[in-house]
Automatic annotation (TrEMBL):
Keyword Membrane: yes
Top-level taxon in the UniProt lineage: Eukaryota
GO molecular function: O-acyltransferase activity
Chief localization: endoplasmic reticulum
Signal peptide start-end: none
Protein name per the record: Sterol O-acyltransferase
Family of the protein in this entry: Belongs to the membrane-bound acyltransferase family. Sterol o-acyltransferase subfamily.
Length: 293
Protein backbone atom coordinates (compact mmCIF):
# COMPACT_ATOMS: atom_id res chain seq x y z
CA UNK A 1 0.00 0.00 0.00
CA UNK A 2 2.91 2.35 0.71
CA UNK A 3 4.51 1.45 -2.62
CA UNK A 4 1.23 2.16 -4.38
CA UNK A 5 0.93 5.55 -2.66
CA UNK A 6 4.41 6.70 -3.59
CA UNK A 7 4.05 5.30 -7.11
CA UNK A 8 0.89 7.39 -7.58
CA UNK A 9 2.69 10.47 -6.26
CA UNK A 10 5.60 9.92 -8.67
CA UNK A 11 3.25 9.28 -11.61
CA UNK A 12 1.32 12.49 -10.97
CA UNK A 13 4.55 14.50 -10.81
CA UNK A 14 5.87 12.92 -14.00
CA UNK A 15 2.66 14.00 -15.72
CA UNK A 16 3.14 17.56 -14.47
CA UNK A 17 6.64 17.68 -15.88
CA UNK A 18 8.06 20.40 -13.66
CA UNK A 19 7.34 18.84 -10.26
CA UNK A 20 10.27 17.45 -8.30
CA UNK A 21 10.20 13.70 -7.61
CA UNK A 22 10.47 12.44 -4.02
CA UNK A 23 14.00 11.87 -2.80
CA UNK A 24 15.28 8.61 -1.35
CA UNK A 25 15.26 10.11 2.16
CA UNK A 26 11.58 11.00 1.71
CA UNK A 27 10.88 7.42 0.68
CA UNK A 28 12.72 5.93 3.69
CA UNK A 29 10.88 8.20 6.13
CA UNK A 30 7.53 7.37 4.52
CA UNK A 31 8.35 3.65 4.68
CA UNK A 32 8.51 3.73 8.50
CA UNK A 33 6.04 6.54 9.23
CA UNK A 34 2.62 5.47 10.59
CA UNK A 35 0.72 6.60 7.50
CA UNK A 36 -0.21 5.27 4.07
CA UNK A 37 -0.63 8.64 2.36
CA UNK A 38 2.58 10.06 0.91
CA UNK A 39 3.47 13.70 1.53
CA UNK A 40 6.79 15.50 1.11
CA UNK A 41 6.37 16.98 4.57
CA UNK A 42 4.38 15.97 7.64
CA UNK A 43 3.67 17.80 10.90
CA UNK A 44 6.66 17.16 13.18
CA UNK A 45 7.16 17.37 16.93
CA UNK A 46 10.16 19.13 18.45
CA UNK A 47 11.78 16.20 20.27
CA UNK A 48 11.62 12.46 20.86
CA UNK A 49 10.29 11.34 24.23
CA UNK A 50 12.12 8.05 24.66
CA UNK A 51 10.20 7.18 27.83
CA UNK A 52 6.99 7.22 25.75
CA UNK A 53 8.62 4.99 23.12
CA UNK A 54 9.75 2.46 25.73
CA UNK A 55 6.35 2.40 27.44
CA UNK A 56 4.55 1.72 24.16
CA UNK A 57 6.91 -1.10 23.23
CA UNK A 58 6.43 -2.59 26.70
CA UNK A 59 2.68 -2.51 26.06
CA UNK A 60 3.20 -4.31 22.75
CA UNK A 61 5.30 -6.99 24.48
CA UNK A 62 2.74 -7.43 27.28
CA UNK A 63 -0.12 -7.83 24.80
CA UNK A 64 1.82 -10.44 22.81
CA UNK A 65 2.36 -12.49 25.98
CA UNK A 66 -1.27 -12.03 27.04
CA UNK A 67 -2.54 -13.24 23.66
CA UNK A 68 -0.24 -16.25 24.03
CA UNK A 69 -1.89 -16.93 27.39
CA UNK A 70 -5.34 -16.72 25.78
CA UNK A 71 -4.21 -19.22 23.15
CA UNK A 72 -2.88 -21.65 25.76
CA UNK A 73 -5.88 -21.28 28.05
CA UNK A 74 -8.83 -21.18 25.65
CA UNK A 75 -7.76 -22.55 22.26
CA UNK A 76 -5.57 -25.55 23.00
CA UNK A 77 -7.85 -27.16 25.65
CA UNK A 78 -10.86 -27.08 23.31
CA UNK A 79 -9.40 -27.54 19.83
CA UNK A 80 -5.91 -29.12 20.04
CA UNK A 81 -7.40 -32.66 19.81
CA UNK A 82 -9.85 -31.75 17.05
CA UNK A 83 -9.46 -34.32 14.29
CA UNK A 84 -7.75 -37.03 16.33
CA UNK A 85 -11.05 -38.93 16.63
CA UNK A 86 -13.12 -39.81 13.54
CA UNK A 87 -16.28 -38.37 15.10
CA UNK A 88 -17.06 -35.45 17.39
CA UNK A 89 -20.34 -34.51 19.05
CA UNK A 90 -22.03 -31.33 17.93
CA UNK A 91 -22.44 -30.32 21.58
CA UNK A 92 -18.67 -30.38 22.05
CA UNK A 93 -18.22 -28.08 19.05
CA UNK A 94 -20.91 -25.68 20.30
CA UNK A 95 -19.39 -25.56 23.79
CA UNK A 96 -16.00 -24.78 22.29
CA UNK A 97 -17.47 -21.95 20.22
CA UNK A 98 -19.17 -20.40 23.25
CA UNK A 99 -15.94 -20.72 25.23
CA UNK A 100 -14.12 -18.70 22.55
CA UNK A 101 -16.56 -15.76 22.55
CA UNK A 102 -15.16 -13.79 25.48
CA UNK A 103 -11.44 -14.47 24.84
CA UNK A 104 -12.05 -13.69 21.17
CA UNK A 105 -13.37 -10.21 22.00
CA UNK A 106 -10.55 -9.64 24.50
CA UNK A 107 -7.99 -10.60 21.86
CA UNK A 108 -9.77 -8.35 19.36
CA UNK A 109 -9.54 -5.34 21.70
CA UNK A 110 -5.95 -6.14 22.66
CA UNK A 111 -4.97 -6.39 19.00
CA UNK A 112 -6.61 -3.06 18.28
CA UNK A 113 -4.75 -1.36 21.12
CA UNK A 114 -1.45 -3.09 20.31
CA UNK A 115 -1.31 -2.10 16.63
CA UNK A 116 -3.40 1.04 16.25
CA UNK A 117 -2.31 2.70 19.48
CA UNK A 118 0.89 1.37 21.02
CA UNK A 119 2.79 0.36 17.87
CA UNK A 120 1.83 3.37 15.76
CA UNK A 121 2.45 5.84 18.58
CA UNK A 122 5.86 4.31 19.28
CA UNK A 123 7.00 4.80 15.70
CA UNK A 124 5.35 8.21 15.50
CA UNK A 125 7.30 9.30 18.57
CA UNK A 126 10.60 7.97 17.23
CA UNK A 127 10.08 9.71 13.88
CA UNK A 128 8.63 12.87 15.48
CA UNK A 129 5.49 12.29 13.40
CA UNK A 130 2.97 14.88 14.55
CA UNK A 131 -0.34 13.39 13.37
CA UNK A 132 -1.38 10.88 16.04
CA UNK A 133 -5.01 10.42 14.99
CA UNK A 134 -4.92 6.73 14.08
CA UNK A 135 -8.51 5.91 15.12
CA UNK A 136 -11.64 7.51 16.50
CA UNK A 137 -14.24 6.41 19.06
CA UNK A 138 -15.63 3.50 17.02
CA UNK A 139 -16.81 1.74 20.21
CA UNK A 140 -19.61 4.28 20.72
CA UNK A 141 -21.02 4.18 17.20
CA UNK A 142 -24.35 2.65 16.20
CA UNK A 143 -23.73 2.63 12.44
CA UNK A 144 -21.44 0.17 10.72
CA UNK A 145 -20.41 2.78 8.15
CA UNK A 146 -19.09 4.94 10.98
CA UNK A 147 -17.33 1.94 12.55
CA UNK A 148 -15.50 1.03 9.34
CA UNK A 149 -14.30 4.62 8.94
CA UNK A 150 -13.29 5.20 12.57
CA UNK A 151 -11.74 1.79 13.31
CA UNK A 152 -8.56 2.33 11.28
CA UNK A 153 -8.13 5.83 9.90
CA UNK A 154 -4.81 4.96 8.25
CA UNK A 155 -6.24 2.23 6.02
CA UNK A 156 -9.52 4.11 5.56
CA UNK A 157 -7.67 7.15 4.23
CA UNK A 158 -5.72 5.02 1.75
CA UNK A 159 -8.86 3.22 0.51
CA UNK A 160 -10.66 6.55 0.18
CA UNK A 161 -7.90 8.33 -1.76
CA UNK A 162 -6.64 5.46 -3.92
CA UNK A 163 -9.77 3.43 -4.64
CA UNK A 164 -13.01 5.20 -3.74
CA UNK A 165 -12.26 8.68 -5.11
CA UNK A 166 -10.72 7.45 -8.41
CA UNK A 167 -13.73 5.17 -9.03
CA UNK A 168 -16.47 7.58 -7.90
CA UNK A 169 -16.56 9.68 -11.12
CA UNK A 170 -17.07 6.55 -13.24
CA UNK A 171 -19.37 4.47 -11.03
CA UNK A 172 -22.04 5.04 -8.43
CA UNK A 173 -21.29 5.43 -4.73
CA UNK A 174 -22.71 1.99 -4.02
CA UNK A 175 -20.45 0.31 -6.59
CA UNK A 176 -17.40 2.21 -5.35
CA UNK A 177 -18.17 1.20 -1.76
CA UNK A 178 -18.64 -2.41 -2.82
CA UNK A 179 -15.26 -2.45 -4.57
CA UNK A 180 -13.60 -0.91 -1.51
CA UNK A 181 -15.04 -3.64 0.70
CA UNK A 182 -13.99 -6.38 -1.72
CA UNK A 183 -10.43 -5.08 -1.93
CA UNK A 184 -10.17 -4.80 1.83
CA UNK A 185 -11.69 -8.24 2.44
CA UNK A 186 -9.45 -9.93 -0.14
CA UNK A 187 -6.33 -8.23 1.28
CA UNK A 188 -7.16 -9.41 4.81
CA UNK A 189 -7.87 -12.92 3.56
CA UNK A 190 -4.59 -13.12 1.63
CA UNK A 191 -2.68 -12.23 4.81
CA UNK A 192 -4.53 -14.91 6.80
CA UNK A 193 -4.15 -17.54 4.08
CA UNK A 194 -0.41 -17.00 3.84
CA UNK A 195 -0.10 -17.02 7.65
CA UNK A 196 -2.16 -20.18 8.28
CA UNK A 197 -1.18 -22.07 5.14
CA UNK A 198 -4.76 -22.61 3.97
CA UNK A 199 -7.61 -20.63 2.44
CA UNK A 200 -10.66 -20.42 4.68
CA UNK A 201 -12.56 -17.16 3.99
CA UNK A 202 -14.43 -16.81 7.28
CA UNK A 203 -13.24 -13.25 7.83
CA UNK A 204 -14.15 -12.33 4.26
CA UNK A 205 -17.69 -13.64 4.71
CA UNK A 206 -18.15 -11.88 8.06
CA UNK A 207 -16.90 -8.43 7.10
CA UNK A 208 -17.25 -8.50 3.32
CA UNK A 209 -20.68 -10.14 3.52
CA UNK A 210 -22.40 -9.46 6.83
CA UNK A 211 -20.56 -6.18 7.38
CA UNK A 212 -21.49 -4.89 3.94
CA UNK A 213 -25.11 -5.92 4.48
CA UNK A 214 -25.26 -3.98 7.74
CA UNK A 215 -24.26 -0.69 6.09
CA UNK A 216 -27.70 0.20 4.68
CA UNK A 217 -29.54 -1.50 7.55
CA UNK A 218 -27.90 0.69 10.19
CA UNK A 219 -27.62 3.90 8.13
CA UNK A 220 -30.87 5.46 9.35
CA UNK A 221 -31.91 3.11 12.17
CA UNK A 222 -28.56 3.55 13.90
CA UNK A 223 -29.09 7.30 14.11
CA UNK A 224 -32.67 6.88 15.31
CA UNK A 225 -31.93 4.25 17.99
CA UNK A 226 -28.22 4.71 18.82
CA UNK A 227 -28.17 2.81 22.11
CA UNK A 228 -29.96 -0.23 20.71
CA UNK A 229 -27.81 -0.51 17.61
CA UNK A 230 -24.60 0.10 19.54
CA UNK A 231 -25.55 -2.88 21.68
CA UNK A 232 -26.30 -4.93 18.55
CA UNK A 233 -22.95 -3.95 17.09
CA UNK A 234 -21.14 -5.16 20.21
CA UNK A 235 -23.14 -8.40 20.14
CA UNK A 236 -21.99 -8.93 16.57
CA UNK A 237 -18.39 -8.40 17.73
CA UNK A 238 -18.81 -11.06 20.42
CA UNK A 239 -20.40 -13.61 18.08
CA UNK A 240 -18.13 -12.83 15.14
CA UNK A 241 -14.88 -13.07 17.08
CA UNK A 242 -16.01 -16.28 18.77
CA UNK A 243 -16.66 -17.81 15.35
CA UNK A 244 -13.32 -16.58 14.03
CA UNK A 245 -11.38 -18.11 16.90
CA UNK A 246 -13.33 -21.37 16.65
CA UNK A 247 -13.52 -21.97 12.90
CA UNK A 248 -9.90 -21.09 12.13
CA UNK A 249 -8.75 -23.25 15.06
CA UNK A 250 -10.92 -26.16 13.90
CA UNK A 251 -9.48 -25.95 10.40
CA UNK A 252 -5.90 -25.61 11.62
CA UNK A 253 -6.03 -28.63 13.95
CA UNK A 254 -8.09 -30.69 11.48
CA UNK A 255 -5.31 -30.29 8.92
CA UNK A 256 -2.75 -31.12 11.60
CA UNK A 257 -4.45 -34.12 13.25
CA UNK A 258 -6.57 -35.75 10.53
CA UNK A 259 -4.94 -38.41 8.35
CA UNK A 260 -3.91 -37.13 4.91
CA UNK A 261 -6.12 -37.87 1.91
CA UNK A 262 -5.99 -37.36 -1.84
CA UNK A 263 -8.52 -34.52 -1.69
CA UNK A 264 -6.36 -32.35 0.58
CA UNK A 265 -5.50 -29.02 -0.97
CA UNK A 266 -5.01 -25.36 -0.13
CA UNK A 267 -8.56 -24.24 -0.90
CA UNK A 268 -10.86 -27.06 0.29
CA UNK A 269 -11.56 -26.94 4.07
CA UNK A 270 -10.41 -30.07 5.85
CA UNK A 271 -12.65 -29.54 8.88
CA UNK A 272 -15.79 -30.07 6.77
CA UNK A 273 -15.00 -33.75 6.27
CA UNK A 274 -12.75 -34.66 9.22
CA UNK A 275 -13.89 -35.29 11.86
CA UNK A 276 -17.54 -36.08 11.31
CA UNK A 277 -19.79 -33.92 13.46
CA UNK A 278 -22.63 -36.03 14.85
CA UNK A 279 -25.64 -35.26 17.00
CA UNK A 280 -25.78 -37.00 20.32
CA UNK A 281 -28.91 -39.19 20.46
CA UNK A 282 -31.51 -38.63 23.17
CA UNK A 283 -30.41 -35.14 24.08
CA UNK A 284 -31.85 -33.95 27.39
CA UNK A 285 -32.11 -30.47 28.84
CA UNK A 286 -31.54 -29.88 32.54
CA UNK A 287 -33.63 -27.32 34.37
CA UNK A 288 -31.17 -24.88 35.98
CA UNK A 289 -33.68 -24.16 38.75
CA UNK A 290 -34.07 -27.80 39.63
CA UNK A 291 -31.65 -27.78 42.58
CA UNK A 292 -31.26 -30.95 44.60
CA UNK A 293 -30.39 -30.35 48.24
Amino acid sequence: MKLCAIAVACANRCDDGGSKLPSFSHFIYFLFAPTLLYRDEYPRTKRIRWDVVVSHFLEVTAIIFYNSFLWERFILPYWSDYGKEPKVEAGTVVRGMFACVLPGVISFLCGFYCILHAWHNAFAEMLRFGDRLFYEDWWTTSRFSRYFRAWNLIVHSWLRDHIYHPLAPYTSRAVSTLIVFLVSAVAHEVVLALSFGFFYPVLMIEFGGFGLLMLPLTASSGSRYPNVFNLLMWLSFFIGNGLLWSLYSMEYFARKNCPPSETDNFFVPKSWSCPEVVLKPNWTFQNPFDIIY
